[in-house]
Design a protein that fits this description.
The chain contains 6 helices and 3 strands, in the order αβαβααβαα. It is mostly helical and about 130 residues long. Helix 5 (about 105-115) crosses helix 6.
């Protein structure tokens, strides 16, 4: 709240880094998923309540080592983009005008499916958790 007047006077925007995890259940790291869902809604609400320029950016899986913390084998993370590449995409998104940005086409499809085909996605995530 203390930053709001400064950001407004500079005609700036508040940028929240969310995650694809906000769009669907994430077995074994539900707390992370829930916190990213809350961050997404906080951004939306601040836009409406306080008339703030807020952007929420949702990157997908990124090669950061977080996968090891949740027990995912290194070979399953081989296709994850590097943190540097994702940071580059986030930087480009910040320069844009959209209030919600999903980084990457595959992630955009995943977010769409998670939002509009939740029953199917839930079943797939449940199956993958076993």
């Amino acid at each position: 709240h203390a930053l709001v007047p400064f950001v407004k006077s500079a005609d700036g925007k508040h940028v929240f880094i969310g995650s694809m995890a906000h769009a669907f259940p994430c077995p074994d790291y539900a707390g992370y998923s829930a916190s990213k869902a809350a961050l997404h809604e906080l951004g939306r609400n601040l836009q409406v309540e306080k008339d703030l320029n807020v952007q929420v950016i949702h990157p997908g899986a990124t090669l950061t080592g977080m996968h090891r913390k949740i027990g995912l084998a290194d070979e399953k993370a081989e296709g994850f983009p590097s943190a540097e590449y994702v940071a580059h995409l986030i930087s480009r998104a910040i320069d844009g005008k959209r209030s919600v940005v999903t980084v990457g086409l595959a992630n955009a499809w995943g977010r769409f499916l998670g939002r509009y085909f939740d029953g199917v996605v839930d079943a797939l995530m449940r199956r993958g958790a076993k």
